[in-house]
Specification:
506 residues; six-stranded mixed β-sheet; binds nicotinamide-adenine-dinucleotide
Length: 506
């Protein structure tokens, strides 16, 4: 293989630098490691050699290939040894002044064609480059942890970056098996920006006491297929990492309500309850295993009243079929009888609003989330309103659990749990496209590879239907009066025109 950059310098050999060095050596480049902390570069080299040896032992790597990688990896005692580099990638401490000082030093050491790149995750690429004589040769090259497993890298153009430089970095990424995605220099770039919706909206759901942590996690895993619930994810990332990122992106976007962090995580961070690594986060951990409260049992009820379904319910025909399959007695008259359980299926509105607007008896009204077809989910979600009678709640719970499918009953919420979380994710992604931060295609790639979502956010929007996502957002705005839910023009226009969210404008 002829690497795009035959000679690569890596400055900063901590968690990220060593992973990046591994990729560079595997791409066939000569790699020089440099770190200001004595022994750190050597320790990184030793660790990488061990990694390759382990792969050889497991039969995943040829011994001669491992030897060649090892041969290409060397340690520099001084920064000026990096002078012959074709590319220098920096992965040092996340401080603007320290990074700027390093690049000022590097710029005069290396040749005029050398590309300079930073692995910064939160600083502005343009701001780091501003101190350089030749900012055109500088770009962001944002890897994810652990680098060898997270096979996506954001290539970030600063205001003055030459497009050829980004092209070369993208080509190089492909040589070591990563997928490059192109991002404009904006807070959070692609992945950390697109990831704002999941946690912040789940925190709002928790903050409104719609459901507890374990229930919210179960719902989002089982209804939408997220691998980890938002609170499991926050526990894994730890709040000392994720809360400051939430705050940073929010403030960098001048308090944009879509990114608003939560007092819940601020307080938990202050109290040191940051996650799995300290044994306590949203869950308690016993020898690394989360202590998840048991699922509430299905109530035993003597009988289930007949069910009347609101004519305005989403997927009404499907609800009827489901009720039939569950053996319910169905009322089809224009209005419910005096003993009927009343079922509504709102998109974005809460159960209370529907009961009031449709003049239903709120004490007998329960909502069911029908955003997705029932067969496509592993859990049904019901919502009560403040007036719902316990016997009606329990009857609905027992009825919808009759076929053994999991059921969660939550308190009233605009858009239950999944609707509002997913609509928030889709809306943020749509607005990223509106701002031209990246192409729709790169957004989908970056999010599926970088965040492990079951679908890219735009594909999620298409799956639900852009018009339905719009309806959910408009209704959320009605229920909460919060500009957080205002739809992005990207979504609004595509929803209005019936276009796919991944449609690229000519
Ligand atoms: N850890 C992550 O998940 C992650 C993900 C993406 C990007 N990043 C970014 O990557 C960079 C490094 O993060 P990390 O987690 O590897 O940090 P780390 O603390 O593990 O490693 C940083 C290394 O840089 C060295 N260093 C500090 N100042 C230096 C200097 N002036 N010159 C040379 N070496 C210096 C330190 O001695 C240390 O070995 C940061 O910019 C961070 O924001 C981190």
């Amino acid at each position: 293989m002829h690497p795009q950059f035959p000679f690569v310098g890596v400055v900063g050999t901590g968690a990220m630098g060593r992973g990046i060095a591994q990729m560079a050596a595997q791409a066939g480049s000569q790699v020089l490691l440099y770190d200001t902390q004595p022994g750190a570069a050597e320790a990184a080299r030793t660790a990488l050699i061990e990694t390759w040896q382990k792969l050889v032992t497991k039969g995943k790597l040829d011994a001669s290939v491992a030897a060649a990688h090892q041969e290409r990896l060397r340690v520099a005692e001084r920064l000026d040894a990096l002078a012959p580099s074709d590319l220098v990638i920096e992965a040092i401490v996340e401080k603007l002044d320290v990074k700027r000082a390093l690049f000022a030093e590097l710029e005069v050491l290396v040749g005029p064609q050398t590309v300079l790149a930073s692995n910064t995750s939160s600083l502005s690429v343009t701001a780091i480059a501003a101190g350089l004589k030749q900012p055109r040769r500088f770009a962001g090259y944002h890897f994810f942890n652990p680098v060898p497993l997270m096979r996506v890298v954001e290539v970030i153009a600063g205001l003055k970056t030459d497009t050829v430089v980004c092209q070369q970095l993208a080509d190089y990424a492909r040589q070591f098996g990563h997928t490059p995605v192109a991002a404009q220099d904006t807070p959070g770039f692609i992945v950390n920006h697109a990831g704002r919706g999941y946690g912040t909206e789940a925190l709002r759901v928790l903050g409104e006491r719609v459901a507890d942590v374990a229930t919210i996690d179960r719902i989002l895993r089982d209804q939408m297929g997220f691998r980890l619930g938002p609170f499991e994810l926050m526990d894994l990332t730890a709040l000392d990492v994720s809360h400051p990122v939430m705050e940073s992106i929010y403030h960098q976007y001048y308090e944009e309500p879509r990114y608003r962090p939560s007092v819940i995580t601020a307080q938990r961070l202050a109290g040191g309850v940051v996650g799995k690594k300290v044994g306590e986060g949203f869950y308690r951990y016993d020898q690394g295993a989360a202590q998840v409260p048991a699922e509430p049992p299905v109530p035993q009820v003597a009988s289930v009243p007949p069910v009347w379904v609101s004519p305005k319910a989403a997927r009404r025909a499907e609800i009827y079929q489901l009720l039939k399959d569950l053996g319910a007695s169905i009322e089809t008259a224009q209005s419910p009888s005096a003993q009927a359980l009343i079922l509504v299926a709102p998109l974005g509105l809460d159960v209370t609003t529907l009961a009031a607007v449709e003049r239903l008896d709120a004490t007998r009204t329960v909502g069911i989330d029908m955003m997705l077809e029932d067969a496509a989910t592993r859990r049904r979600v019901l919502a009560t309103n403040p007036a719902t009678r316990p016997d009606m709640r329990d009857a609905a719970h027992a009825l919808f659990a009759r076929d053994g499918k999991a059921v969660s009953v939550v308190r009233d919420s605009g858009g239950f749990v999944t609707q509002r979380v997913v609509a928030t994710i889709v809306n943020i992604a749509a607005d990223m496209c509106q701002q031209g931060i990246c192409s729709p295609k790169d957004l989908e790639l970056a999010v599926t590879l970088g965040l492990g979502y079951p679908l890219g956010p735009l594909a999620m929007g298409d799956r639900i239907g852009p018009t339905n996502v719009l309806e959910i957002l408009f209704n959320l705005q009605t229920v909460y009066g919060d500009p957080r839910y205002r739809p992005s023009p990207w979504l609004r226009r595509r929803g209005a025109l019936g276009l796919s969210l991944s449609h690229e404008e000519a």
